[in-house]
Amino acid sequence: MIRTESSASSRLPNPSTLPLIQLPAWQALVDHHRSMSARHLRQFFADDPQRGERLQVEAAGLYLDFSKNRITDETLTLLVDLAEHCGLRERRDAMFRGDPINTTEKRAALHTALRAPADVNIVVEGVNVVPQVHAVLDRMADFAERIRSGEWRGHTGKPIRNVINIGIGGSELGPVMAYEALRHYSQAGLHLGFVSNIDPNDLVEATRGLEAAETLFIVCSKSFHTIDTLTNARAARAWSLAQLGDERAIASHFVAVSTNTEAVAAFGIDPAHMFALWDWVGGRYSMDSAIGLITMIAVGPEHFRAMLAGFRAMDEHFHSTPLARNMPVLMGLLAIWNNNFLGAETLAVLPYAHDLKRFPAYLQQLTMESNGKHVTATGQAVSASTSPIVWGEPGTNGQHSFFQLLHQGTRLVACDFIGFSRSQNPLADQHDLLMANLFAQSEALAFGKTAQALMTESVDEARVAQRVCKGNRPSNTLLAERLTPYALGALVALYEHSVFTQGVIWNIDSFDQWGVELGKVLAQRIVTELADTSDAPLTHDSSTNTLMRRYQGQRKE
Ligand code: F6P
């Protein structure tokens, strides 16, 4: 059980003044890599017949097989040693305590408080935040039940049949991913939609054919400043009013999720219909806060709470398990190894569960917005590459698309396979076929096929080179019994803490996102200029000016 009471920021470790790559623990890994890099996964497995049984760890209902990574026991010892030198245990404890570890924004990063049991104390600026979290969860549950049961009526007295989430980034990717992942648990008869893109097509297509009298919009924005979301919310308001013809209708067809009560009220949503979150929840870490209201409406409060229990089980494992047997720590350290030592610049996330189809997109924000940083938390240039590029598609679709490159391309791609032992919808032997593909792909990537083996199969000699698969491609395999709400919570928390672990090694602030600001500011300026039809000279570079003029010209035609 996580017990955390103090918020003494003085307990944060002093980041080392040495650049990461000059730390003795890093140099030891460089030397180690040099001494073992010529060895093939085939050899690792041949030398140790129990490797696949040994190099695994279980937590919160998840089983991680990491034996198909290019590592030895010594690699693991050295990686854990690096984590100790980088202060991982202290930084982890500081996060759980609520210390302001998001230093550039002077905030705590307390997503773990969102799933803390009610009797725990987590104090931020003198206030125990856990009762607030539970109060919001209870309000969400009450509201979700009223929508699901039909008790909540729209302006004309009809029950709500359509719920549309308007939000972007962390205010969409988590909820849409969870909604898709838990479709099996969704209430039949409720239509759920997501509008994120400022492209008008998104809203228009999401509302096409719907009756406003039966439609509820959840305007989800932590800041309530995001132009994409506010623009779509205004358009949704106009769409509703065009059908309902009465301003008073807004009260029963719009609710908000935000930290910003004033902006919600200014938009015209009654703060009584607002669900709160807090500054100490990062957008990309917020799917288990009120941002997940639509998830709760879809699957019901009980399943939502089961998802929180899965998050919590992984939190407790992360918080209390020695680093060498700690699943998120191991995943994070293996990611460092694959990225910084083997040179794998990208990570392919390959869920063999179609309902996890949005999981790679969700992880893109979680990973790359967190760790795509070029300076350390104290502003020095990083000395090693930071976040890998995350991408992926569900298996088996990916197999018929980009797997060719994984097997025979010239780049090394690290892979995370994710699978489940039982299907939500058993259909003849289809689930076995699906999982056979997962096992086959990780085996093929690791072991490949040699020219010698091909020759024994009497393959035409002239075609042998094209058929050789070199193997030696690293992968993790995550296995759980079923894709339940609990398993989903555990899976998301696993990646959250793995991302955190990597950020600690690089000594970056994984909880800010200053890089997204520049484009936002420029877009504001450009949209004003696009609206100006005079011939006033444009003030950008010659490429941007020409593109803008061409756009203005074609727009008129
Ligand atoms: O632009 C990036 C970002 O700030 C994300 O970090 C965030 O999840 C998203 O925009 C949406 O922000 P908000 O919930 O405040 O609308």
TrEMBL record:
GO biological process: gluconeogenesis; glucose 6-phosphate metabolic process; glycolytic process
Protein name as it appears in the record: Glucose-6-phosphate isomerase
One Gene Ontology term, aspect cellular component: cytosol
Organism encoding this protein: Acidihalobacter yilgarnensis
MF annotations from Gene Ontology: carbohydrate derivative binding; glucose-6-phosphate isomerase activity; monosaccharide binding
Subcellular location: Cytoplasm
Key words, A-Z: Cytoplasm, Gluconeogenesis, Glycolysis, Isomerase
UniProt family annotation: Belongs to the GPI family.
Chief location bin: cytoplasm
Species classification: Bacteria, Pseudomonadati, Pseudomonadota, Gammaproteobacteria, Chromatiales
Alphabetical list of InterPro entries matching this protein: G6P_Isomerase, G6P_Isomerase_C, Phosphoglucose_isomerase_CS, SIS_dom_sf, SIS_PGI_1, SIS_PGI_2
